[in-house]
Structure formats: structure tokens, C-alpha cells
Amino acid sequence: MIKTPISILQEMMVKQQSVPDYQLIHDGGGTHMNTFTYQVTCDGLTANGTGRSKKDAKHEAAKAMLETIATHRGYLQLPAPTSQSPLRTPLPPVIPETERLPPNVPFVNAVGALKELCIENNLQEPQYVQVSDVGPPHRKIFTFLCNVANFRETGVARTKKQAKQEAAKKMLHKLTDLVADLNIITELGDKEEETDPTSETAKSLYPTLSRLPNAKKINLGYKISEYHIKVKESIDSALCQEFVTKLDTLVPEDCSNITPEFVQEFQLSLQDLLFSVNLELSSIFIKPLKEDIYITAIKVNTSPDTVQIASGNSKERATFYALLKIIKTLKFFFK
């Protein structure tokens, strides 16, 4: 059984047919940073102990008394106690004061503003994580972490709501500065295009050359029965007709010799064509159930994605048939 200095002193005095006398000589002063002091008297000796609670102060007083008795009687110094009374009310760190806004300044909801900024710029939704809460129950200090992409900001305040707002406010300032810098770069680019006679040609060829779409994807929240119509309406009609014509000429006439090189060249040609309308293609091999059956899924990043699956007795044939299905579907969408 682990004994504390209080219990050791009690047993020692009971053997001498007496008990320690504890008196509270300082009650903390009535502030949130209370400190208590106890005085213990026994065997004609007196010792004091101070702590953040009455229990801690009494514990320290008993510990000091044991050391005093050991010194007075010439005993060897007692080893450090195996059990320490836990500090129920730890000293809080420095508490940051929340900025008080003047009465004529409206309150800005940083959490809501940050969420809107992320939506407008196609960023992931902010994530908030409570890192810590320290201090006594009536004087808690909360720390929240705000995550957006690879950015991290923390907020510290007396309430969870204020800490969350502080973290969101710091993140909002950081992202706003980044967006402002991007806008400045865009404006400079626009000014250069006004003076460059080849800017329109470069702009039209940019998606194909860089293989990066220059327009945001629109989340088409429509019924499935109307989806193909909305996909077609998202692309210029002249470009749409040209795209369908190229799809017709893309399918090879002779499909008897389906080799890995033949399928790879066919897939690259379709990818280049899709880049012209800001679409990308990717293939996924599905683990076959049997050794002689291969399955391939071809995905085009429309919104939502368009996927076609095909099987064959080799990976090349499965991929080729899936590509044909994708072309047939795209022709239906844009026809």
C-alpha cells in the first residue's frame, strides 16, 4: 500500500498517543489564483505547507513536518515519497485576452466567412480539432486547430467558440492574402494578353498543351434522366459538334490486331481529345475472378464521373472494349 506523508505522520503520532494538529492559516484571498497555507503542530514542533488547494497545502505541511522531525531527532533524511498528491487545480498558462470590438463595429463570423472562401476557391472544407483544455473548471483555456489543405492555424481563448473563431480568423487572413496574390498575378496576365496579338491563340491551345483545365468543374445537381443534356449544355455548341466528329474518326477501322502498343496509342489519342474539352481519362484494372478473364474500368471526370467497364481474355482487349464504350457514351452525351 502506498502511503502519503499525511498518513505516515498520522501513524507516527498515534504510536506516541497524539495526533497532528492542522490549522488553515491562509485561505487563498478569494481570487481565481488561490493559494492555501496549512500549519501542522505535533511533538512540540511546527511546520507549514502551501499549495493550490487545501489538500495540496495539507500534504506539503505533513511532508515538511516529517523532514523537521527527522532533523530534530537526528534521523536520516526520508526518501522522496512514492506517492504525490495530484494537483487538482494546475496553474493555468497566460490567458490571451480576446479583442473587444467597439460598439459601432459589426461582428464578423470568421468560421462562416472561411467556409465561403474555401467553397469559392474549390478548397476542402475547414476542419477544426480541439487540441487542449487546461486550467480549473471555472477558468478553462481552450486551444483549437484549424486545418485547410496543408495550412494550420491555432486559436486560444476562454471558450470553445472564441478559440474556434480565433483559429478561423487567422486562417481567413492567410488564405485571403494568398487569393489576393493570385488575383494580382491574374490581372498582370490579363494586361499582357491585351498587348499580345497571339494571346487568344495561346489561350485556346492552353488546355491541350498544358493538359490542365482552365475552367472550374460545375457540380451538376440534376436528375439522372437529364444528365446527358446538362453535360452537353456545359460545352460550347460549335466545340461540341467538332468534338463528336473527332470521336467518330478516332475509332480505328481495323481492330483485328489488338496489341499493347495499339491500345496504348488508342488511349493516348482519346486522352488528347478529351483535354480539348477540359476532361481527363483514367483506367482502373479490376482483379479478375478467373485467370482468363480480365476487367478494366475507364473513367472520365465529368461531374459526376462517367465510368464504363468491359471484360476480355487479356488486359489489352478489356481496356480496348472499355474505351469503345466510353466513346459511345460520350457521343450520346454531346450529339
Topology:
Elements lengths: L4 H11 L5 E6 L9 E7 L2 E7 L2 H20 L36 H11 L6 E8 L6 E8 L2 E7 L2 H36 L3 H12 L13 H10 L3 H14 L9 H16 L5 E6 L7 E7 L5 E7 L2 H20 L1
Antiparallel strand pairs: 1-2, 2-3, 4-5, 5-6, 7-8, 8-9
Descriptive overview:
The protein has 335 residues and is of the alpha+beta class. Helix content is 45%, strand content 19%. The chain is built from nine helices and nine strands. The chain has helices spanning 5-15, 54-73, 110-120, 160-195, 199-210, 224-233, 237-250, 260-275, 315-334, and strands at 21-26, 36-42, 45-51, 127-134, 141-148, 151-157, 281-286, 294-300, 306-312. α7 runs antiparallel to α8 (260-275).
Number of helices: 9
Spatial sequence of strands, sheet with the most strands: 1-2-3
The global form is elongated
For the largest beta-sheet, the strand count, sense and barrel status come to: 3 strands, antiparallel
Hey, roughly how much beta strand do the residues contain?
15-25%
Helix content bin: 40-55%
Write the H/E string, N to C: HEEEHHEEEHHHHHEEEH
Secondary structure tally: strands: 9
Span between termini: 85 Å
* C-alpha Rg (nearest Å): 37 Å
The structural class is alpha+beta
Mean pLDDT, rounded to whole units?
Answer: 75
Contiguous uncertain segments of 5+ residues: 82-89, 208-221
